[in-house]
Every structure is written in structure tokens, then in C-alpha cells.
């Protein structure tokens, strides 16, 4: 069974940066695309970014394009999300997920709060 664990969230001022990590286990990490989503209070889960299994192609939501960067550290079984120029509207719980054997697996999420 796939397991994902996010880390790196916290409180940051507008314009600041954070780097989130997501460690995977229970599946062949180099064989699956990985995704980041977020969920703000009272809202649905929003797609943020995705990266292919080889790390050679990425896609971003318009809301974060140019500010966020998704990366893959295959030897560490980790995907990272570098978040720059953070805005208050980026406040949310951030999740990574993977589609493995026909099911979506999610981590527990990490809270990011952007506030002065």
C-alpha cells in the first residue's frame, strides 16, 4: 500500500518562501507521476502541480505558475514543492498524492499559512 508523508509547512509572511517535501513508500517511486494539491478553509481541493515519474515534465495551475516549482528526488523517494512569492491566498493545507494500482493515495497534509 502506498504511503505519503508531507512536511515543511508553517507560517510565513507575504512575499516569503517555503519548501514542502513529500516522502513516499510502499510503491516503486520512480514509476509513478506525483501531484500536489491544496485545500483552503471552506473550499474544495485544488490541483497545484504535477511531475512525471522521470521528473522530465511538469505542469502547474495558473494560480501558482512562475512562483512554485515541483521537483523529484528519486534516490530520496521524495517530491518537493518550492513556493516563492507567497500570498495570503496561498494559505491552505497542502497534500501530495499518487495514483497507484487504480487508487489515489494521499498524505495527511501540511498546513501553510501566509500572513503578516
How would you characterize this protein structure?
With 116 residues, the chain is mainly beta. It has no helices and eleven strands. The strands form two sheets. Strands 2, 4, 5, 6, 9, 10 and 11 form a seven-stranded mixed beta sheet that branches. A hairpin with a 4-residue loop joins strand 7 (68-73) and strand 8 (78-83). The model has no long low-confidence stretch (mean pLDDT 95).
Q: State mean pLDDT (0 to 100 scale).
A: 95
Assembly category: single chain
- Give the DSSP E fraction (strand runs of 2 or more residues): over 45%
Please provide the count of β strands: 11
Return residue spans where pLDDT drops below 50 for at least 5 consecutive residues: none
Q: What is the chain-wise order of helices and strands? A: EEEEEEEEEEE
Count of alpha and pi helical runs:
0
Radius of gyration: 13 Å
Shape: globular
Q: Please give the largest β-sheet.
A: 7 strands, mixed
Which structural category fits the helices and strands? mainly beta
Question: How much helical structure, as a percent, in the residues?
Answer: under 10%
End-to-end separation: 40 Å
Give the SSE map.
Layout: E1 3-7, E2 10-12, E3 18-25, E4 34-39, E5 45-51, E6 58-60, E7 68-73, E8 78-83, E9 92-100, E10 103-106, E11 110-114
In short:
This protein has strands at residues 3-7, 10-12, 18-25, 34-39, 45-51, 58-60, 68-73, 78-83, 92-100, 103-106, 110-114.
Amino acid at each position: 500500500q502506498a504511503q505519503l508523508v508531507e512536511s515543511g509547512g508553517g507560517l510565513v509572511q507575504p512575499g516569503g518562501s517555503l519548501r514542502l517535501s513529500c516522502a513516499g513508500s510502499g510503491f516503486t517511486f520512480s514509476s509513478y507521476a506525483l501531484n500536489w494539491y491544496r485545500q483552503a478553509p471552506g473550499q474544495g481541493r485544488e490541483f497545484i502541480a504535477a511531475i512525471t515519474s522521470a521528473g522530465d515534465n511538469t505542469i502547474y495551475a495558473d494560480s501558482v505558475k512562475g512562483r512554485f516549482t515541483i521537483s523529484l528526488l528519486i534516490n530520496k523517494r521524495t517530491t518537493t514543492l518550492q513556493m516563492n512569492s507567497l500570498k495570503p491566498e496561498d494559505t491552505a493545507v497542502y497534500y501530495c498524492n499518487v495514483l497507484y494500482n487504480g487508487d489515489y493515495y494521499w498524505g495527511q497534509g501540511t498546513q501553510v499559512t501566509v500572513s503578516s
